[in-house]
Amino acid sequence: MNDTVLQVNPVPARTWLAVAALGISAFSIVTSELAPVGMLSALAEDFNQPESGAGLAVTAYGWVAALAALLSGAMPSRISRKALLVGLMLFLALSCLAVTQVHTMSLFMMARMAGALAHGVFWALIGAVAVQLVPQERLGLATSVIFGGVSAASVMGVPLASFVANMTGWRHAFTVISVLSLAAASLLFWTLPTIKAPQPLRLDVYRGLVKNPVLLTLYGATASIISAHFAAFTYLEPLLTQTRNVPMASVSGLLLISGLSGLLGNVVAGKLIDRHIKLLILIALLLSAGALGMLGMKSVAAPSLWLTGMLLAIWGAAMAIVFVGLQTWLLRCAKEAAQPASAIYVAIFNAAIGTGALAGGQVSARVGLQEVVLLAALVILGSIALVVTLKSSEKEPSF
Known about the structure:
The chain is an all-alpha fold. The protein has a single domain (13-388), classed as MFS general substrate transporter like domains (Growth Hormone, Chain: A, Up-down Bundle), CATH 1.20.1250. 78% of the residues lie in helices and 0% in strands. It has helices at 13-34, 40-46, 51-54, 56-71, 81-99, 105-133, 139-168, 170-191, 203-211, 213-233, 236-243, 248-272, 277-296, 305-334, 338-366, 369-388. Helix 1 (13-34) runs antiparallel to helix 6 and helix 10 packs antiparallel against helix 14. The two termini are 23 Å apart.
């Protein structure tokens, strides 16, 4: 079944409603993915695991989502993309509901992996959907709206999950996420227009993608930046409580500060990224590395709560800009090959989440949490060299 989207300029209000619905779906997905970050200690205690062991739930989730994103290119073109996106959100809701019923770490991981399958396929499709919904000159704004759901998940989703987990238990937190995913599926059903299904992918399309030096550099930068970010972010709760002397009751508030700043970063990206994409990403990487470096420094004096909040705010805003920037650059470069390019990108992104979480757990178990943060800062700083080599021209080859 081949559905079509009629694009007009200016973009109609209904199209922006659909873009907003995708942003809300992104909010639900990322809240589900990152919820363990705000309840890592509770999960570790309930399942009798060390915190590094509980962090493996993030690692496995990321790797399964990466595999699902790669395999998404094999989806038959006769399947309606609108129906597929709605179905994936329903599947995620069922996965979160199943999580609330488990009592062992192995069953918890299995239930989470089911959600990771939906996660990977959804993210692989969402970039191609954005390309079809809006004209090229509005792609940066649409991408920032969709990725605004990522920042909003940090603003409300992850802190809310952490708050609910602290107040009533982590199972209730996943129940809330399940209801949220169901609501997102309903919004997609009512607002998303029919979407043209891509033509069956040929092997030479993938060969063309991996031969494009701009895409290869973007993929490499994404792998290093996201791995470093999640090596630190996955263990943010124990980092704050054990090395920054933050009371457990204040963790949700600091996560809220980080998320609010991420939302601000999305606003900045939406206004500037269509004109200054390279400069914006470079500045964001420098700010992120600087904030992480200061978070990882050992101080003789007791760490200040307001300084910790400020550093988390800078880190959150900067990474939100980087997320939007890399995705937008990829879509501009890939053009009509947006879906396979996005599938590879999402696979790398999620594999990097899993790898970063694993590396962070291993390094923290051996040398400490602050050393993990310092190492993450160095890797992000080194990734600037990759971004510098990219051409900022929008006239990239298509496939």
